[in-house]
Every structure is written in structure tokens, then in C-alpha cells.
Specification:
Layout (H helix, E strand, L loop, with lengths): L10 H14 L17 H7 L9 H8 L3 H7 L1 H9 L7 E4 L8 E5 L5 E5 L6 E4 H18 L4 H23 L3 H5 L5 H11 L9 H5 E4 L2 E4 L6 E3 L9 H16 L4 H7 L2 E9 L10 E8 L5 E9 L5 H4 L7 H12 L8 E8 L2 E9 L14 H22 L2 H8 L4 H30 L9
Antiparallel strand pairs: 1-4, 2-3, 5-6, 7-8, 8-9, 9-10, 10-12, 11-12
Helix pairs in contact: 1-16, 4-6, 4-17, 6-7, 6-15, 6-17, 7-15, 7-16, 7-17, 9-15
């Protein structure tokens, strides 16, 4: 996103504007959560998203969301955004994640196997108020703490830790140069605490070749893991597998044009060997998502790419902003803006026809070095370390794309904002439990169809 004149004005002008905003929208006002009278029906909002999703996957979406209040929270991004849009706004925008809940952060190994912590999901990214991301993040820790049966006092400390980490980091970034912000590393001690839990010996995943593939007819192929992963040859009703693979090749060809010359040369060393339809988390279940297995010519070394349907951001109807160039380009642009460690295979395909429909896709490498941590197994101390790391990472992303000086001036030097957001998080978690119960009742009454599955 491009900085406005207000964001590059003299420091005293930006600070004065932030203090004026605090007078109009005091920190305590961020405790507000929309009343039942003001809220849109969440099941109606979720059903609105179903109209152009894969019909046979919709029961799986609702089955996953019905599993627990935390699963519902993760899937109900549109209802959450509608709630956030009804809360006070400070008037400062950033490139928002749009779904900055703790499950959308992760550990990655980069060059030299160095571990970094960063955002892992960008489906909803769009310019929007910075406080929406902070509130969504804080609420996710309250909901997770309840899922983990942490005492109320421990949950309070965890939520405060996330928001205070954001505030303190933003004050630090307000004193730094743009280059310093761009290359700022996370706190090594906190990173080690989170990594020790999320990458412990009992939680390590198998390498990608073993986890994603099998040998069929003497060839390396994607393994069937229904309903989460279904190879093209196993699909019913989606057309001939050869035709699907051919169409996927067309999508990849369009995606290739969005890469620079060096990255195109790297991609050209691989050829498409197999494809499978994949099902993502609760929020993305039902959207078109494909895994492509590419192998290096002559050696068979694999490369896994994820081709995920890009849809309009849930923020578009509430933030007053739109994304030119299509949804795929929006996701890729947003990821490059807020993620510190880039993906060399990141790109998009605009208007690609596939499985009988036309849509946008964003493409990225499907990594085999993601952490396999389970946030529901975290102790209060580990979850609190995770909260601090997420808060800092969110602040870095916002400082890269917004005005850290103005946001820091608005946040002030005390815990008033953090305390208010904690109250919001508690109210949000309470409402999440009620909404989850309403979904389960709708399933029992037959108004919503749900299916279980991994």
C-alpha cells in the first residue's frame, strides 16, 4: 500500500493527529463488542459464502467448525469482521492480515535452516484499520485459553501479553528507520521457547516426500488422504483426470508469467507429475485448493506447490477499500508487504479456468518444514510466549505498511488499550461460544448439513 501525505508529514503533526484520535476514540472504547441487536446473524453470513464453493465440501466445512468453539472461531472470519466493523475506528490504516488469529502464524526454516516466525495465511489481507488485527489476535488467545482449560487469570495474562507486546514493539519501531523495521528479527529467547514446544521430537512431521506422496505404478504420486487430499484420478464428478491435469497446467503457465526471470528459470527445471484437490482449514474449506507435485527432470526431486482459489477479502465490504488486479494479485501483494521472509515461488493466476469454473488463484510453495505444533496442547507459559511473539510480529507488519509513530502515539505509554482489548476478547469469546452452540443446534435440526472428517 502507498503511504498518504498524512503518514509522511512532520513527526509533530502525526503525533498531534494521533492524540486527537485518542480524544475522539479513547482507549477504553475498544472494549466495546457489538450487541445482539447490532450484530448480523452469523449463520446467514456464513451461508452467503457458500454460494460459489465446492458443494460436496460444504458439509466438511461445517463439520470442522462444529468441532469446538475454537474451530468455529477459526472458520467464522466473515462474522468476526462484521463485528469488528461495528467497533470504534482510530482512523489509521495498515496492510491488515484480515485474519490475524494465532493459528495463522508459524515457524519456518529459511536459508541455512534458520528458524523464523511469521504470518502463514494471507487470504483476507487488505488495507484496513490496524486495531481490527489486534482485536482478532487477542480474541484468538482468549478462545484458545478456554479450549486449553487455562484459568481465567492465566488467560488474562496471555491476552495482555499479546497486546502489550504489540504496543511496546510499535513504540520501538516508531524510533527506527524503515530499513531497520524491514529487517528487524524477532526476540531470539521468545522464539526458542515457542520452537521448543512446536518443534519438539514428538511433534516433528515427516519430510514432505513421505508425508505427501506414495509410489504408484512405479512413479512418485500424491498420496490419497481423503477427504483432506484427493488425487485428481480419484475425484468423481470433476471431469476426466487427464483434463483436470491439463487445465492445471494452464493455470501454472499463467502463474509462471507472474514470476521474475530468475524464478521462472528455477520453476522450469520441474515438470508437472500429479495433482490433488486439498481441503484447507475451517475458514477455507469448500474453496478450490489444489496441490501440484512437480518433479525435477532427470532426478525426480519433488517440488510441491499449492494453488489456492483467491476470493474477495471479507474486509472489502467493511474497510471501504478494494483490490485492483484481481483477488490472486491482492493476496500476493499483501503477503509480500507484511511477511518478512518471502517465498520464491509466490505468484498468482488471473481468470484461470479450472474444474469448469473461472477464478483467480494464488500459488505458493507447500512447505515440508512448517511447524506441527498444536496450540491446544500449550501450557499457559508457552501460550503466553506465543502471544508475545505474535504481538511483536503483527506490530512489525503494521509498522512496515502504516505509520508506526502515529499508532505508537495513539497507544500511549500505559496499559489502557491492552486492558480494553482484553475486555473485547472476553466478550468475543463469550459470543463465539454462543454462536458455536447455535451452529450445532442448526446441524441437529437439519438446517445445516455437516460431515465429520480429518
Amino acid at each position: 500500500m502507498t503511504l498518504t501525505d498524512k503518514e509522511i508529514a512532520a513527526p509533530d503533526v502525526r503525533i498531534a493527529r494521533a492524540r486527537a484520535a485518542r480524544g475522539t476514540v479513547p482507549a477504553a472504547s475498544h472494549a466495546e463488542f457489538p450487541s445482539l441487536v447490532r450484530r448480523a446473524d452469523p449463520l446467514t453470513l456464513l451461508a452467503r459464502q457458500d454460494t460459489d464453493r465446492v458443494p460436496e465440501l460444504l458439509p466438511l466445512r461445517y463439520g470442522r467448525m462444529a468441532a469446538s468453539p475454537l474451530a468455529y472461531f477459526r472458520g467464522a472470519v466473515l462474522p468476526a469482521t462484521a463485528d469488528l466493523a461495528a467497533t470504534p475506528r482510530t482512523g489509521f490504516s495498515v496492510q491488515a492480515c484480515g485474519d490475524a488469529q494465532l493459528a495463522n502464524f508459524g515457524l519456518f526454516a529459511v536459508q541455512g535452516r534458520r528458524l523464523v516466525f511469521d504470518f502463514a495465511d494471507f487470504d483476507e489481507t487488505l488495507p484496513a484499520p490496524w486495531e481490527w488485527d489486534v482485536k482478532r489476535l487477542a480474541a484468538s488467545f482468549e478462545v484458545t485459553g478456554r479450549e486449553n482449560e487455562h484459568p481465567a487469570g492465566q488467560r488474562r495474562r496471555t491476552v495482555i501479553a499479546a497486546v502489550e507486546s504489540y504496543r511496546l514493539a510499535m513504540h520501538d519501531f516508531a524510533r527506527r528507520t524503515p530499513l531497520d523495521i524491514f529487517f528487524a528479527p524477532a526476540d531470539a529467547r521468545t522464539l526458542r521457547v515457542v520452537a521448543a514446544h512446536r518443534l519438539g521430537p514428538a511433534r516433528r512431521r515427516a519430510a514432505g516426500v513421505r508425508r505427501f506422496t506414495e509410489i504408484r505404478d512405479g512413479q512418485l504420486r500424491l498420496a490419497a488422504r481423503p477427504p483432506s487430499v484427493v488425487p485428481a484420478g480419484h475425484l468423481a464428478g470433476d471431469g476426466d483426470p487427464a483434463t483436470l491435469t491439463e487445465r492445471l497446467g494452464v493455470v501454472l503457465a499463467r502463474y509462471r508469467r507472474t514470476l521474475g526471470p530468475a524464478r521462472r528459470a528455477l520453476l522450469d527445471r520441474y515438470r508437472l507429475a500429479d495433482a490433488a484437490r486439498a481441503v484447507t482449514g475451517p475458514g477455507g474449506a469448500g474453496t478450490r485448493c489444489w496441490v501440484a507435485l512437480l518433479v525435477r527432470t532427470g532426478t525426480g526431486d519433488p517440488l510441491f506447490l499449492q494453488l489456492k482459489e483467491a476470493r474477495p477479502s471479507v474486509l472489502e465490504g467493511y474497510a471501504g477499500t478494494a483490490a485492483p488486479g484481481g483477488a490472486g494479485r491482492r493476496v500476493v501483494t499483501g503477503q509480500r508487504l507484511i511477511q518478512a521472509t518471502g517465498d520464491v515461488f509466490l505468484g498468482w493466476a488471473r481468470g484461470a479456468e479450472f474444474d469448469g469454473r473461472t477464478g483467480d488463484f494464488h500459488v505458493r510453495r507447500l512447505r515440508d518444514d512448517h511447524d506441527a505444533g498444536d496450540v491446544t496442547a500449550m501450557t499457559p507459559d508457552v501460550l503466553r510466549a506465543h502471544a508475545r511473539l505474535c504481538g511483536w510480529t503483527l506490530a512489525r507488519a503494521h509498522a512496515r505498511t502504516g505509520d508506526p509513530l502515529a499508532i505508537a502515539a495513539y497507544l500511549g505509554s500505559g496499559p489502557a488499550f491492552a486492558e480494553a482489548v482484553r475486555e473485547f476478547a472476553v466478550a468475543c469469546a463469550d459470543q463465539t461460544e454462543r454462536d458455536h452452540a447455535a451452529l450445532r443446534q442448526a446441524i441437529r435440526s437439519g438446517h445445516v448439513t455437516a460431515a465429520t472428517g480429518s
